[in-house]
């Protein structure tokens, strides 16, 4: 059995890809408005994933102040467009500041103000390379169902907070949010049309690839 990673090594891994002044400023904005952004390790993983996918079209549920969005945009193709959804218009205004300060062209980030489950059904089937979910944890299963419709074959869905502050791994924790995330993990792992992985970066990043459909 492998030895559990020590805190110093976990911190080293989380900080392996350094954040620049634009991400630091976005985090400061998040703190001011009470938003909890993704960790730097999770951000680096998302950028890597978007780059590997050569992503042209990405959906994000939970704009915040643009921390995760900036990481994603930096991994996407230079002509890629991020569609980011949040219920708070003020948060999206701050995210636009983050993107503009970092030199991201305005036409590369489409912000839609609204609840995820109201917006996702209006988006195009099979059009997206990546769907990143960081919204209401109780709605994660519903986001998953929408993501499977939105993703092209070979596309990836990702969920932040998949470990939920160490609560998911503890069967004694049965609050609504923890249970929803735990149930999602089981459903993803059991779905034969997905290739899943759970990475212990940040607060946990659950990802699943939509397998290619067999040729007729």
Automatic annotation (TrEMBL):
Please give the superkingdom of this protein's source.
Answer: Bacteria
The keyword S-adenosyl-L-methionine is assigned to this record? yes
Keywords annotated in UniProt: Methyltransferase, S-adenosyl-L-methionine, Transferase
| Any Pfam family the entry gives | Methyltransf_3
Gene3D superfamilies under this entry? Vaccinia Virus protein VP39
An example GO biological process term is: methylation
**What are the recorded GO MF terms, alphabetically?**
O-methyltransferase activity; S-adenosylmethionine-dependent methyltransferase activity
- The name of this protein is O-methyltransferase
Organism source for this protein?
Answer: Nocardioides piscis
